[in-house]
Design a protein that fits this description.
Elements lengths: L1 H11 L14 E4 L6 E2 L2 H8 L19 E4 L5 E3 L14 E3 L4 E3 L7 E3 L4 E3 L6 E4 L4 E4 L31 E3 L5 E3 H9 L16 H12 L11 E6 L5 E5 L15 E5 L2 H12 L1
Antiparallel strand pairs: 1-2, 1-3, 3-4, 5-6, 7-8, 9-10, 11-12, 13-14, 13-15
GO molecular function: ubiquitin protein ligase activity; zinc ion binding
InterPro entries: RCHY1_zinc-ribbon, Znf-RING_euk, Znf_CHY, Znf_CHY_sf, Znf_CTCHY, Znf_CTCHY_sf, Znf_RING, Znf_RING/FYVE/PHD
EC number: 2.3.2.27
């Protein structure tokens, strides 16, 4: 009778809500760093790195050192394993003993990458590991992405969250730099279309440049500025050139991009500035 009741309880767990926003699982972890109980390492890290926590006490969980879990069904504390030693419930249909990950949502197509040293989602057959970038990328990028050494082993340039093991979707920009996908979308809401690391345009800006051509043509500069020349550096092609000064933008003569920056003053302006200092 007792065995039958346990089996019924185990089966009923499949129809109830469990786990957290990061993983569907039937166990909690005991953090080896602070001996506190959480559903997963992300829950721990979010709690222990929040703005309310003293900066000296903030820390991430050493996930590979995890040794103990607690069954969500019978509250039995035990060593890390896929099934409960007491009630027999499966903590997660996907289980990785190397990463100590449990997850019942197998629609993520989880797999463990030995070279990354962590579990990834999306299906092993859909990704390849780039040895130079030291990360798994979509097969669509295999012959086209620009390799940057340890490209994923840094913080997102927008939100500063570490990218290598982030649970959020990431994307690789044409320049090779990586960033959270939702951070890119937020940039676009503020009309920012260049990489925050190297400033190269990450999408086709042809129509924008054409509109700038029209605006510059319809906005002539005053006579005293019409012959003024400035040196610019193009963020897109990397070439420097000397062009006519305009208050709106400066166009690269090599690739026709307006994604440029002024690099130095003209000799006349430098001399004028020096005279003012001497006086």
């Amino acid at each position: 009778m007792e065995s039958g009741l346990k089996n019924q309880m185990v089966s009923n767990m499949g129809s109830t809500k469990y786990g957290c926003s990061h993983y569907r699982r039937k166990c909690k972890i005991i953090a080896p760093c602070c001996n506190e109980i959480f559903y997963c390492r992300h829950c721990h890290n979010d709690a222990k790195n929040s703005i309310e926590v003293d900066p000296l006490d903030r820390h991430d969980i050493p996930r590979l050192e995890l040794e103990r879990v607690i069954c969500s069904l019978c509250n039995t504390e035990q060593d890390v394993q896929q099934t409960c030693t007491n009630c027999g419930v499966c903590f997660g249909k996907y289980y990785c003993s190397k990463c100590n990950i449990f997850d019942d949502d197998v629609s993520k197509n989880q797999y463990h990458c030995d070279k990354c040293g962590i579990c990834r989602t999306g299906g092993r057959d859909n990704f390849f590991h780039c040895d130079k970038c030291e990360c798994c990328y979509s097969n669509l990028l295999k012959d086209s992405h620009i390799c940057i050494e340890r490209a994923m082993h840094h913080n997102c340039p927008i939100c500063f969250e570490y990218l290598f093991d982030t649970p959020r979707d990431t994307t690789v920009l044409p320049c090779g730099h990586t960033i959270h996908l939702d951070c890119v979308k937020e940039m676009e809401q503020h009309f920012q279309y260049s990489c925050p690391v190297c400033s190269k345009s990450y999408c086709d800006m042809t129509r924008v440049w054409e509109r700038l051509d029209q605006e510059i043509a319809s906005t002539p500069m005053p006579q005293m500025y019409r012959n003024k020349m400035v040196w610019i550096l193009c963020n897109d092609c990397g070439e420097t050139s000397e062009v006519n000064f305009h208050i709106l933008a400066h166009k690269c003569v090599n690739c026709n991009s307006y994604n440029t920056r002024q690099t130095r003053r003209t000799h006349t302006l430098c001399t004028s500035g020096l005279s003012e200092i001497v006086r």
